[in-house]
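ugh ok fine here u go
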Amino acid sequence: MASIWKSAIALGAALAAAASLPLAAQEEVVVEAGKPWNHAPSGISVPATIDGIARGRVTRFDQQDLDVAASFFRGSPQEALTVYVFRNTNGNASVWLSQAQGSIENGKSFGTPSLAIAPATFAPTAQSGAIGVHAVYALTGTDYRSAGVAIFPVGDWYVKVRASSTSRSPAENAAWMKRVIGALILPTLSAGAAATPVIPCSTPLGAANSADSTATQGAGISQPSDRIVAAQWCRETRMEGNRAVYRPVGTTDRYLFAFGDNGNAVTVRGEGGYYSGNFITAAKSFALPPQTALPTPQRVLELMAADKAVGVFDTWPPRR
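structure:
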């Protein structure tokens, strides 16, 4: 178990530092030229050409195709598209849009980004309802003029589209992303609850400091299948390395500590007499030692750095 937990620590550190997996963990997926790339676990298919741009590399960031990306690029004008598919393990589309915004705002390749289109909902298909959310930035100090990101759920998966262009305005970028999404071959999307953009938290978290939040003996270990559900999430101050804490609006006794923008996070909440923490990745969930009080995010990082796992649960394939 320790070696698995240390792998998770390495993953968390990499996400905190770069909001992506280490380069060594990336692997190219061989796809026949001119043919769609079919993502078997989700049933999503990405065409060989989208909006006149040929697909380039398809990359997997794990060994089970639970976190994958297809890249599209052309040189004049410079247009870059990436279609990501990753597991819906926790949070919601608005949380992961917020995290993707963090990678744009802090990314060195985007010069000085300025939010031109604030997070807004959209319908990925005519039948789905406004279950998706997107945002677009105007860029200065770089060759690119705009960069946008859109994300929406597909069953137990998220699709995320990143688009940057040297010629398109923010409004044109938003319309471009909608055309890209319209070109994807998706399983039938049911009309779920409309997405609600993340807002700033209006009250402090109220977590205990490290001295007050210590391991409690004899407490159970929570199963990671129960998500923290929220009609709307709020965000605490964003931290270094594109980490941020999100809470259901109106609560101070639970939170989601997100790392990067591809679904990896720690869920922290009360379990009736103690507080649990689970570091959830695409395929596994790692339980932290139960705590006597709601731990701060810094306390969570300390427990992860100390290699403190008390249980490991497989989350893929999903339990039935």
